[in-house]
């Protein structure tokens, strides 16, 4: 889908989630495309601070904060999408999907709410998750090469070995062999011992806290209250849900909002979402800026599926 080739008749747009941020994100898009530059300027004005400069020049430690990273990714992805549309480099939007935070981008692109509303929701979500993480010592652990049964076994055996009150649950089913568990810090540490005993390699993740686990319940409550106040429009294209791994009921705003709240304390079923899309949605998969994370996951979900990546302009 570049200037030399004709655009496909349909595109499935993939919107990245937290972890895709990096210093310099979106800068090339803003330098080369007026639509992207205007999107960053609009975000700066709405937010009341220069998010664009944080994206373009850092500092990295501030950009990596949950409350800043989520804003940065949302704006960068929308800026990329608007630039592609303005340059006539996308076909007809058929379906959208987003990993965790990216589900808000996906819903905005599908027409559920305007850019400014999405920006405020993402700002609140990021702050609420940051606050919940700071209120409880917690973390996340990647299980390398594990399947869902093994992940649940690690969680069950870990909790059985610890005093009551600990939390440990599967949090992300990203692709075959990449499952992330999430919970209180003691549980995360113990899980690495348990996983080793059953032959599963682990990596402790550098995150603020236990995302997609019950630790995020305070954030879920704050998000629910904010969503209740949002003016909602029925999306004009289907949107995939992280919670179910299938399509949202796009004519049911109450259902979509409930799933967005549930997502904060439930596992992200990205592998299942992509398998559903591959089986049911014809078209070209496209990943928006600012990175290539989702393209990499797709290679492990189904190597036959090609994802056109737009981390930077062609």
CATH class of the largest domain equals Alpha Beta
CATH architecture call of the largest domain: 3-Layer(aba) Sandwich
In whole angstroms, the N-to-C terminal distance is 10 Å
The count of helical stretches stands at: 13
Provide a descriptive summary of the structure in words:
The protein is α/β, with parallel strands linked by helices. The protein folds into 2 domains: 10-133 and 215-309, Malonyl-Coenzyme A Acyl Carrier Protein, domain 2 (3-Layer(aba) Sandwich); 137-208, Alpha-Beta Plaits (2-Layer Sandwich). It has helices at 27-32, 34-47, 51-57, 60-63, 66-86, 102-109, 115-135, 148-160, 185-197, 217-228, 253-263, 270-280, 293-301; strands spanning 10-15, 92-98, 138-144, 168-175, 178-184, 201-204, 284-287, 307-309. The strands form 2 sheets. The protein has a 4-stranded parallel beta sheet. Helix 5 runs antiparallel to helix 7 (115-135) and helix 10 packs antiparallel against helix 11 (253-263). The longest helix has 21 residues, at 66-86. It is globular. It starts with 9 loop residues before the first strand and ends in a 5-residue tail after the last strand.
